[in-house]
């Protein structure tokens, strides 16, 4: 595999709630559950098709801003007012006081927290490295059960109130979606198969790191859940995904059981969800968790730095598989830290999830 061309990127349509979850929900006998899920699936499918048609030709990467990029974020929040036309009505600009709308304020804070982690931990100014403005739209559609990044901005639904709550309540969901933009502007991982699962996993990793950074949590203190707080009390589950224990996030009569594998021996071969990108991401997710907790301290410092090094290093192919990604993390550990605890911990983490590094 060849490293990606740096001349452009293909924006993709990425959602936080996997299609298989919404599909299961759409089959419920309860119309209050099935209806919103079905409409969300249809909306996502239509928008995904439009995105694919719009990116048949490679889109040039955003040019660098003249002069030094700002150390401050440039956020703009919009209110869709339960319609689907983006971005909606402008309701809060950078530096303005909080509004009376909690969703707007949570999205504003989440975008800021993601910007801050990238800057303070890795010296990167916004997702493109050049201070790219961050745009978010809330109250998208009616009872929309998802949040997504469409290659240009973040969009958040309110949820149906039956299964899902407002998608701005979880800061890691906000950061997850924004991290798809980070991947788009760096390694540009193809959104299919193992490279797609890596794309999803990288977003989970940085989503979790933003959450941990904002809460001041060490790797041992973190819950390593993605989307904790999104599910209503009626759901038998704690989150959308667990990086610590993939496959255990939920086990519910309506949603079904979390299908994520924790190691390669349970890898799921499927043509659905772009080759299982939201399912098999559990394997590299757990590898990162194992590494971060083995090293201890703040996960964004050493473990996160290695993932960031690989993502931005220019050697990761757009169609990278788990094994090639793992090898690059080992090389990154040796390059940054030498033949020490870090490199040994990386090797052990990947070995535990069944991904070879030699």
List keywords for this structure.
single chain; 358 residues; alpha+beta; six-stranded mixed beta sheet; two-stranded antiparallel sheet; 12 strands; disordered N terminus
What does this structure look like?
The chain is α+β, with helices and mostly antiparallel strands and 358 residues long. Helices cover 41% and strands 10% of the residues. The protein contains ten helices and twelve strands. It has helices spanning 19-26, 31-54, 102-122, 171-184, 193-215, 273-276, 282-295, 303-312, 322-337, 341-352, and strands spanning 8-9, 14-15, 59-60, 75-79, 89-93, 134-138, 147-149, 154-156, 225-226, 241-242, 251-252, 256-257. The strands form four sheets. The chain has a six-stranded mixed sheet with strand order 2-7-8-6-4-5, covered by helices on one side. A two-stranded antiparallel sheet has the order 1-3. Strand 11 (251-252) and strand 12 form a beta hairpin. Helix 1 packs antiparallel against helix 2 and helix 9 (322-337) runs antiparallel to helix 10 (341-352). The protein is globular, with a radius of gyration of 19 Å.
Q: What's the gist of this structure?
A:
This protein has helices spanning 19-26, 31-54, 102-122, 171-184, 193-215, 273-276, 282-295, 303-312, 322-337, 341-352, and strands spanning 8-9, 14-15, 59-60, 75-79, 89-93, 134-138, 147-149, 154-156, 225-226, 241-242, 251-252, 256-257.
């Amino acid at each position: 595999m060849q490293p990606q061309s740096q001349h452009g990127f293909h924006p993709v349509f990425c959602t936080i709630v996997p299609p298989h979850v919404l599909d299961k929900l759409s089959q419920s006998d309860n119309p209050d559950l099935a209806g919103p899920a079905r409409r969300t699936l249809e909306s996502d499918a239509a928008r995904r098709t439009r995105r694919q048609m719009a990116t048949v030709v490679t889109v040039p990467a955003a040019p660098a801003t003249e002069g030094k990029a700002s150390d401050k974020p440039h956020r703009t929040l919009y209110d869709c007012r339960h319609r689907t036309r983006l971005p909606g009505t402008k309701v809060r600009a950078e530096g303005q006081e909080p509004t009376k709308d909690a969703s707007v304020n949570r999205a504003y804070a989440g975008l800021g927290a993601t910007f801050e982690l990238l800057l303070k931990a890795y010296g990167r100014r916004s997702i493109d490295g050049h201070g790219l403005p961050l745009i978010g739209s809330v109250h998208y559609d009616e009872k929309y059960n998802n949040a997504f990044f469409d290659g240009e901005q973040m969009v958040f639904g309110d949820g149906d109130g039956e299964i899902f709550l407002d998608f701005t309540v979880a800061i890691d969901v906000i950061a997850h979606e924004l991290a798809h933009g980070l991947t788009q502007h760096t390694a540009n991982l193809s959104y299919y198969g193992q490279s797609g699962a890596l794309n999803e996993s990288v977003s989970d990793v940085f989503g979790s790191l933003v959450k941990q950074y904002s809460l001041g949590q060490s790797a041992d203190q973190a819950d390593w859940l993605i989307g904790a707080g999104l599910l209503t009390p009626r759901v038998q589950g704690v989150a959308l995904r667990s990086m610590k224990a993939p496959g255990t996030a939920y086990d519910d009569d309506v949603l079904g059981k979390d299908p994520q594998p924790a190691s390669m021996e349970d890898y799921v071969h499927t043509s659905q969800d772009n080759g299982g990108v939201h399912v098999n991401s559990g394997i590299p997710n757990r590898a990162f968790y194992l590494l971060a907790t083995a090293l201890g301290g703040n996960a964004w410092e050493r473990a996160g730095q290695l993932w960031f090094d690989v993502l931005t290093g220019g050697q990761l192919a757009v169609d990278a598989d788990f094994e090639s990604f793992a090898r690059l993390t080992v090389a990154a550990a040796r390059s940054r830290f030498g033949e020490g605890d870090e490199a040994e911990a990386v090797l052990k983490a990947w070995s535990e999830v069944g991904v070879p590094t030699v």
